[in-house]
Write a structure and sequence with these properties.
The protein is of the alpha/beta class. The protein is built from 16 helices and 15 strands. Bound molecules: beta-D-fucopyranose (FCB). The site of beta-D-fucopyranose (FCB) has 12 residues, from loops.
Length: about 450
């Protein structure tokens, strides 16, 4: 397929996250988050930078919405900073925080752009981490209360919501690898964290629907198609185990009230996870849609149980048979087609949206100030064609959000990666649409991907 056409009601979007763009880390009553604490610690972030200012989006609603409008987008995925609206993670709301998100949603609606907020994109209130964080079962209740608070307050202007962004990544990087906030390297805490998040998801979805039954609630997953390293039956089994553990660990609990057993070598470590009788009923809830974040595939081979926490029976192998982005991530558009088709089936045919997909290329302004990021245009073209192919194969994919609207704070990588459709000068904070942004704006306007 060399051209692809999308329906008129397809959502063309871009995605961001609060800590990566907002700045204003301690303004208007906002509480400290685990990312504030982590990034303020020496040795955690490349270049010793942090998100204190980031893109200053907290003060630039008008500029950001104007950018989205210039890109002809009709959907904006952003996240709500929990400590901005509930500073210590429990108790009454901070009205100034809620007002910011209401102003943003209203500005989007006035520009005919659908607001698509995620309730948790990794910035837990530090006070809850001090009480044990996601490793503490009670955090699930706190999250459900917060979710009900925000959706009660803003559900009159925002209809579509996501609970979590990438539970696999933030539990693992935050509690097992220690590479992200809160920087813990504790296998047992990691196992408990995954279970708390699954409990939180079920509780929150029910709490949101109890507050406002008409809202459509989804969850956003980081996924990688697993390609077996060889033709052997063992590698095929290992690839399936990878799929269960990486792609479905937070999917099956909400859809079916159970963990994907294929993920582990033998029995689930239920006791270490803090699993209690009846948790199946807490985890299960009605999920209206699923968000798919796709960056790359993984090549998987059979291996003796190695993972410190779960004893998963596989290993991933080098994957540089594909071209790499400037971040070193392989570019493989067919992986997006494959995983959309697979996840559509494994999610029981609920609607999907691509909630993130993108690439870091470091192209900056030339002498005339133009950003000629041709590699991003090629990436976008291939990946949008892959979405069209997945749709043609029957996957009900209703939207595509490019990561990201503008260059921003890339977690432990600081400001060393540039994923934006828009270039940000981090001294002046000036935003300049890249050539890829102009190209994508045409696609969004016409609903057609040119050859
Ligand atoms: C995803 C995150 C997002 C961004 C991209 C590059 O894992 O959800 O915040 O950092 O990676």
């Amino acid at each position: 397929m060399s051209t692809a056409t999308f329906p008129a009601d397809f959502f063309w979007g871009a995605a961001t996250a609060a800590y990566q763009i907002e700045g204003a880390w301690n303004e208007d009553g906002k509480g400290e988050s685990i990312w504030d604490r982590f990034a303020h610690r020496t040795g955690t972030i490349k270049g010793a930078t942090n998100g204190d200012v980031a893109c200053d989006s907290y003060h630039r609603i008008r500029d950001d919405v104007e950018l989205l409008r210039r890109l002809n987008l009709n959907s904006y995925r952003f996240s709500i900073a929990w400590p901005r609206v509930q500073p210590s993670g429990r108790g009454p709301e901070e009205q100034r925080g809620l007002d910011y998100y209401r102003r943003l949603a209203e500005a989007l609606l006035a520009a005919n752009i659908r607001p698509l907020p995620t309730l948790y994109h990794w910035d837990l209130p530090q006070a809850l981490e001090d009480a044990g964080g996601w490793a503490q079962r009670d955090t699930a209740e706190r999250f459900a209360e917060y979710a009900a608070l925000v959706t009660s307050a803003l559900g009159d202007v925002i209809g579509d919501w996501a609970t979590f962004n990438e539970p696999f990544i933030f539990t693992r990087f935050g509690y097992l690898d220690g590479y992200h906030a809160p920087g813990r390297k504790e296998p047992d805490a990691y196992l408990r964290a995954t279970h708390t998040v699954n409990l939180a998801n079920g509780l929150a979805i029910r709490a949101i629907k109890a507050a406002r039954s008409a809202l459509r609630v989804g969850c956003v997953y980081s996924v990688s198609p697993a390609v077996p390293a060889s033709e052997s039956a063992d590698d095929a089994t290992a690839a399936e185990a990878f799929h269960a553990y990486v792609n479905l660990w937070f999917v099956e609990p909400v859809l079916a009230g159970r963990y994907p057993a294929a993920a582990v070598n033998g029995e689930l470590p239920l006791a270490r996870m803090g699993y209690r009788d009846g948790d199946d009923r807490i985890m299960r809830a009605s999920l209206d849609w699923a968000g798919i974040n796709y960056y790359f595939h993984q090549v998987v081979r059979s291996a003796p149980p190695s993972d410190e926490a779960l004893g998963v029976p596989f290993a991933t192998v080098g994957r540089n048979e594909h071209p790499l982005t400037d971040f070193g991530w392989p570019v493989n558009a067919d992986g997006l087609r494959a995983i959309l088709v697979r996840m559509y089936r494994d999610c029981g045919n609920i609607p999907l949206e691509v909630t993130e997909n993108g690439c870091s290329y470091l192209d900056g302004p030339d002498a005339r100030g133009t950003i000629l990021d041709e590699r991003r245009i090629a990436y976008l073209r291939e990946h949008l064609i892959a979405v069209a192919q997945a749709r043609a194969e029957g996957a009900d994919v209703r939207g595509y959000h490019h990561w990201t609207l503008m260059d921003n704070f890339e977690w432990a990588e600081g400001y060393t990666q540039r994923f934006g459709l828009t270039y940000v000068d981090f001294r002046s904070l000036e935003r300049t649409v890249k050539d890829s942004g102009t190209w994508y704006a045409d696609v969004a306007r016409t609903g057609t991907v040119p050859v």
